[in-house]
Amino acid sequence: MRTLTLRRPLVPTALAATLLAAFVFLFAWPQSAAAHDALIASDPAADSTIETMPEELTLTFSAALISGEGTTAIEVVDADGNSVIDGEPTVDGAVVTQPLLSEAAAGEYHVEWRVVSSDGHPTDGVFGFTTTTSTVPDPIEPSATPSAEPSAEPSSEPSSAPSAEENAEPTQTAAPAPDAQDASPATGWIWTISIVGVLIAAGVVAWLIIRSRKNASPTGSDTPTER
């Protein structure tokens, strides 16, 4: 007696297993994706236009976030890439607060955020907003204030101080004049002594000449008598 063995085709079985696995994956993946906390609101709102830069940016998520060092990062930059954040962000449950600079130019701003969801997975996103009024001080006003102060101070002090010094200095420089007068008598004495010395020397020379002539005259008279 023969036993008939039924062999099922392998291809339909493998196809059915693949479809079952794909169905399970597609059903489970949205559940895991939905577990990440999502951004549900922001202030300023995404793509909104406001008058001036607010003091802080707030982000509100669908569930409480995991806080801690390095878990939250927010960057707000203008069209030129200049950051306008002022300090570190703080996490309070599902709300993240980021302080901003009070002085900012009008224009478009780009926001990038990154947080850690309550399930432990990081999530991030981007959006933008626009301001219409600048809060940066006018550069003309600061330049006008210094120009007035220096012009007033030099005009008063230097005008009086040099005049007093110039009036005082001539009286001090006139003091050496008596020294020249004191030196003139000494010079006169020197000339007087020199003249007297010359006269004495001339008298001595004259006396010597007369004496030599007197000594020579007797000798000349004795010679004819002897002859």
Quickly list its features.
four-stranded antiparallel sheet, rod-shaped, 8 strands, 3 helices, about 20% strand, alpha+beta, single chain
Annotation, overall tally of beta strands: 8
Average pLDDT, rounded to a whole number, is: 75
Distance between the termini: 218 Å
Shape: rod-shaped
The arrangement of helices and strands along the chain is HEEEEEEEEHH
Helical percentage: 40-55%
Amount of beta strand: 15-25%
Structural class: alpha+beta
Low-confidence stretches: 28-34, 223-227
Main beta sheet: 4 strands, antiparallel
Q: Which strands sit side by side, in order, in the main sheet?
A: 1-3-6-5
Radius of gyration: 58 Å
Number of distinct helices: 3
What does this structure look like?
The protein is of the alpha+beta class and 227 residues long. It is 48% helix and 21% strand. It has helices at residues 10-34, 140-173, 177-226; strands at residues 39-43, 48-50, 56-61, 73-78, 90-92, 95-99, 107-116, 122-131. The strands form two sheets. Strands 1-3-6-5 form a four-stranded antiparallel β-sheet, with no helix packed on it. It has a four-stranded mixed β-sheet with strand order 2-8-7-4, with no helix packed on it. The radius of gyration is 58 Å and the shape is rod-shaped. It starts with 9 loop residues before the first helix and ends with a helix. The model is unreliable at 28-34 and 223-227 (pLDDT under 50).
